[in-house]
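Technical annex, item 7. During the second reporting period the consortium partners agreed on a shared format for inverse folding records so that results from different sites could be compared directly. Each record opens with the tokenized structure and is followed by the designed sequence. A conforming record, contributed by the partner at site C, is shown below for reference.
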């Protein structure tokens, strides 16, 4: 049984998230059932932490960044523990936008009252230092250019909300083209939405390169779109 089917009935709009949440749930189950032989104890739990991060991030972004779900749906997700509320609260704070886990910043967990090595900006570390947070496998989650774009360096570090939203836009464009309607003509709503992508598109396009899909199509699509938007704005 899915974990969100257990208690209260989900509010309208929750179904928008369901395919991705179901996929993550299946992935999590698979990882939990997988054998841990040959792995260090901590390491065998990395996928669990990483998938939890990714699911929280997905829902967080769908609400705060893309506004694709209502507050009611978001709060339902928090209540159902589909979102790690403590982690999400940190993401709103400057410097913690990409934080991997609250464990990494709890000084009680580290000698000399420090934080995890993954919190240290890369320019401070000696070259060639291998960064891996022991708790979750994070490779660096400091903010800004010095942090990793994909903090886990695998598919669980991808930003699924961005991927989904871009895919939907692409499909909508294709449908509009079939109908003979120009997408670029620019209703105001459309412009506004693409402005969001302008800030984000490049960064996330690269992230997709880490996964199985090449992300190539979406990345090339990002270019002209961003350009067009700038012209509209000016
Ligand atoms: Zn980290
Ligand atoms: Zn971590």
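Designed sequence (site C submission):
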């Amino acid at each position: 049984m899915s974990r969100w089917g257990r208690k209260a009935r989900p509010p309208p709009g929750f179904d928008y998230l369901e395919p991705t949440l179901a996929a993550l749930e299946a992935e999590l189950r698979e990882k939990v059932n997988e054998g841990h032989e040959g792995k260090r104890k901590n390491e065998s739990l990395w996928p669990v932490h990483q998938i939890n991060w990714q699911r929280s991030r997905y829902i967080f972004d769908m609400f705060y960044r893309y506004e694709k779900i209502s507050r009611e749906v978001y709060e339902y997700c928090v209540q159902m523990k589909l979102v790690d509320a403590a982690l999400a609260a940190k993401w709103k704070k400057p410097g913690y936008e990409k934080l991997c886990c609250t464990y990494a910043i709890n000084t009680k967990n580290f000698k000399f009252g420090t934080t995890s090595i993954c919190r240290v900006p890369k320019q401070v570390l000696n070259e060639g230092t291998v960064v891996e947070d022991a708790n979750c496998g994070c490779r660096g989650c400091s903010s800004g250019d010095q942090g990793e774009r994909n903090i886990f360096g695998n598919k669980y570090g991808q930003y699924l909300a961005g991927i989904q939203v871009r895919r939907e836009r692409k499909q909508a464009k294709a449908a509009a083209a079939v109908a003979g309607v120009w997408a670029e003509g620019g209703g105001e709503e459309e412009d506004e939405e693409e402005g969001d992508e302008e800030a984000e598109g490049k960064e996330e396009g690269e992230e997709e390169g880490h996964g199985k899909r090449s992300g190539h199509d979406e990345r090339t699509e990002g270019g002209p779109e961003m350009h067009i938007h700038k012209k509209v704005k000016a």
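The first helix runs from residue 18 to 33. The chain has three domains: 1-90, 93-155, 160-233. All partners now use this format for quarterly exchanges.
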